[in-house]
Amino acid sequence: MVKRLIIKLIIEVGSTVAKSFMKAYQQTAKQSGGKAGNPFTEFLNQTMQAANLTHKPMTREEAFKILQLVPEKASPEDIIRVYWRQFHKNDPVKGGSFYLQSMLHNAKCELMKDFADVNEKEILEKIKKEGESQKGDEAEQKDEAKVEEKNEEKKEN
């Protein structure tokens, strides 16, 4: 467990440093007219592109596909509900994937840009309460079923 966390930390820090280096390089290239002056610069550009460190932001279409939502029917509640459910299904502790969780998070962030005035925390609390009440209802139904079974057993005896 600790090894995984250390490896993830090293990868994320390395990726962040590489991205920062790339941004600084791009700014310098823009200031100098954007022309590659030496072979090292061309090699660096090719390497960064091959390593996919020139990350493109997620598109709305990709976000809808990831969350499996239809653009015309997507409401903030639907976005957060699907995000919350899928995010917890893909929990690495439960055998899920950190990569999928990050994709789900990025998709939710992309789609919620359209609903800047919506308070995500309120919606999430509402969803959690609904989930708790559903669990409570299910528990009550199970208890009632057990009581009925016991009553039937008593009648048979």
UniProtKB/TrEMBL annotation:
Cell compartment(s), UniProt = Mitochondrion inner membrane
Q: Which InterPro entries match?
A: Tim16
Q: Which domain of life is it from?
A: Eukaryota
Q: Which GO CC annotations does the UniProt entry carry?
A: TIM23 mitochondrial import inner membrane translocase complex
Ordered alphabetically, the record's keywords are:
Membrane, Mitochondrion, Mitochondrion inner membrane
Provide the transmembrane region boundaries: none
From the UniProt entry, list the residue stretches annotated as the region Disordered. Answer: 128-157
Pfam families for this protein: Pam16 (PF03656)
Q: Which GO terms describe its biological process?
A: protein import into mitochondrial matrix
What is the first-listed, main subcellular location in coarse terms?
Answer: mitochondrion
Q: What is this protein called?
A: Mitochondrial import inner membrane translocase subunit TIM16
Its source organism is Paramecium primaurelia
Species lineage: Eukaryota, Sar, Alveolata, Ciliophora, Intramacronucleata
